[in-house]
Predict the structure.
Amino acid sequence: MKFGGTSVADVDRIRNVARHVKREVDAGHDVAVVVSAMAGKTNELVGWCREASPLHDAREYDVVVASGEQVTSGLLAITLQSLGVTARSWQGWQIPISTSNAHGAARILDIDGAELVRRFEERKEVAVISGFQGICRETGRITTLGRGGSDTSAVAVAAAIRADRCDIYTDVDGVYTTDPRVVPRARRMDKIAFEEMLELASLGAKVLQVRSVELGMVHNVRVFVRSSFDKPEDIDPHGMPPGTLICNEEEIVEQQVVTGIAFSKDEAQISIRRVQDKPGVAAAIFGPLAEANINVDMIVQNVSGDGATTDLTFTVPAADYERAAKVLADSRARIGYERLDGANDVAKVSVIGIGMRSHAGVAAQAFKALAERGINIRAITTSEIKFSLLIEAAYTELAVRTLHSLYGLDK
Amino acid sequence: MKFGGTSVADVDRIRNVARHVKREVDAGHDVAVVVSAMAGKTNELVGWCREASPLHDAREYDVVVASGEQVTSGLLAITLQSLGVTARSWQGWQIPISTSNAHGAARILDIDGAELVRRFEERKEVAVISGFQGICRETGRITTLGRGGSDTSAVAVAAAIRADRCDIYTDVDGVYTTDPRVVPRARRMDKIAFEEMLELASLGAKVLQVRSVELGMVHNVRVFVRSSFDKPEDIDPHGMPPGTLICNEEEIVEQQVVTGIAFSKDEAQISIRRVQDKPGVAAAIFGPLAEANINVDMIVQNVSGDGATTDLTFTVPAADYERAAKVLADSRARIGYERLDGANDVAKVSVIGIGMRSHAGVAAQAFKALAERGINIRAITTSEIKFSLLIEAAYTELAVRTLHSLYGLDK
C-alpha cells in the first residue's frame, strides 16, 4: 500500500490511512506501507536548501529532504499501534534500499525484503516504509529518488517482498481514458497493460511516476491505482474496490484497440527548412539544444522535393521556445539551413492502445475524423502502440473529444 | 562547536553559525559542529506524536523527533560549502553514536571518532553532526537522548575526537554567579569547576544540561559556554572570547570559596510530625511517592523530644503538592504519624563553591546574615560543595541578593 503526500497531510489523514491498513490486516493480509512526506513538507525543505545555497550539494539536499518521509513513517507506525495493529517504521538505510549514488535522482539497485517477510511470518508486523529514499551502499549516505519517487519505492518494495499487488492510493480513483475535466464522458479503466500505462505516464497523465510503471513491468508487479478518500470501512478487502489495475496484457480479457487519449498543451513546434541532407546534420542541430538543457520531443524529417535538402520539424516545451530558436540561430552557419519556422501555440494529442499492434488503419481513422472537423495536423509520430499528432492548441479539446468518441471510449 | 535551536532557527541564523565555524577553520582548527533542530521544530514533531497517540511507542517517537536535527545538519553543511568550507553532515547512525535502547532518554555508550579524525587530517573536512540522536547497536533503531541532549552529544563527540575544547554557543554569554534578572550585580564567571557547574545545573541554572557536565567531568573535556550572537568577525579565534570555561578545578588559579547562588521557587514543603522512628518507615513514606512519580528533593529528619518518634521534612515540586499530600494521607495507616504539615509557597536557595571543602563556617555566615534580614530558614541540607536553604518564597530575591553580597560575588 502506498500513500502520497495529500493522503498523509496531517495526523487526521494519517489516521484514515491507518484504518485502510487495518482493514487489510484484519482481512489476513501481510502489509507493507510506503509513505510520502506530509503535503507541503518536501517543498518547505527544498526551499530551505535553495535559500542556503542555490548550488547546493545534492548529498546534503538528500539528507534534508529525506527527513520528510521519516516523520510520516514514524507517525503512521504510532497511529497503527494505537489501533492495535503491530507495526514499525523503516528508513531506507535500515532495510536497506540500496540505490545508485546519483543523489537527488538515484535509482534503486536492490532491496532486501527478507527481514520484512520474516516479521510478517513471525509477528504479523506491518512494515511502514519511508518512500522516496534509500542509501548508497559504497558511501553509506542517504539518497533520494527524485520527485514522485515514492511510487517507485512502493513498486520496488512490492517486488522485493513478492507482494500479490501494489496498491497506490491517490487523490483520484483510477486511470481514465482521458482527462475527465476535458472529456466529461471519460471512463475509468478497470485494467490497463503496463506498456499502455507507460505511454500514458510518459505523455503526462500524472497518476503514476513513469519509473514505477517500468519497474512494475520488469518485475511483473500488479499495480492498483485507487482512492485514499474511499471510506476504509465501506471497502470489502476480499473484493475488488473501485480503481484501475495495471497488469500484463495477458490478464486483460477484453482488449480494446485504443485504451486512452493523452494530450499536452505546453508544446512549441520548430521547423528547419531546407537543411543540407548530409551525415552529422542531426547532431549539429540537437547537440547544441541538449547542451542548453532543452528537451526535444517529437522529431519528424521529410525529404524535400529537390532531393538534396530536407525539412526537419520537432517540438520543445513552450517555455523553452525562444531559447531554442536562439540556439539554432546561433548555430546556423554550422548546421546550414534556409529558414526557421515555428509556433508556440501547438498541442500534442496521443492515442494509445496495445491493440494497434495487430490492427492496421487505426491512425488513418483519426486523420479522417479530425479533417472532417477542420483540424489541421502539423506533424505525426508513431510507435508500436501509440501515435501522436501535433495540432493547433486551440483545437485540443475538440480533437480529444472527437478521438475519444471515434475509438468508442465514451461511457 | 555546538549550536542550539535558537541559533539555527532559520537559514539566516544558520548562515551566521556557518561564519562562526569558518572563522575557526580559517584559524587552522579542525572542527566538529553539533546542531540542534531549528527552534520550534522539536515541539511541532512532539505535538504530532502526541496527537497520533497519547501513549506512543518511544521508538517511533525517536524516529519522528530525530528528523529535526537531520534537517539542520544538512542545511549547515550546504551553507558551509557555499562559504568555501569543506563540510559534510553526519547522522547518529552514520558515525555511529551508539546509545542504550532507552528510547526517548538514551545514554551514549560509545562514539567512534576515527573516521571524523581521518577526514580532518586528509581533507580538512568539517563534521556537521546531528545532536540529540544516536543508534541502538543491537536493534539498529534511531534513539534520542531526551530534551537538551544536544549538549551531551557535543561533549561526547568532543571526547571521542579528543578535542581541545567543546564550545557551547547559547543565547547567553556564559555562566553567571546567579540569575542576573534577580541580582543585577551578578557577574559572568570566567571559569567554573565541573563539580560546581554540576551543582548549578542540577539546581536549575538552565545554561547546560546536567548530563553534559557529568560527561565533561568524566572525560575531562573543557566546555566553554559562549554567545552565538557575538559577531563572528569580531572574535579573535586564537584569543579567549567572552564566555565561561567549565574545567578541572586545578585550572582555576584564583579559587573562591563560593562561586554561585542558585534558587528555585516552585517548591513545596511537606512535614510529617511524630512518625514512628523504626526501620522501614522511610520506605513506607517515599515508596508510594515514587510510585506516584513525585520527585522528592531535600529530605531532613529530626529526632523529636520523646525519642520514640521523629519529624520528617522534605520538598516536592509545587505542582505535585496536593497529589503528594493525598498519597501520604492514603498511606497514613501504614506509615503511622500524628500530623501532616505543609506549605507550597517555599523556595530553595543554594550556595555552591568547591572552596567550602576546606573552609569551615561558610554556611554559618549565611544563617547569621539571613537572620539579620528577618528571613526564617525552614530546612537545611548540605553536601561537600554546597548547602541549600528552604525559605518562604516571598523572601527569595532578598535572600539571593544578601548571600550574593555576603560571599563577595557582586561586581
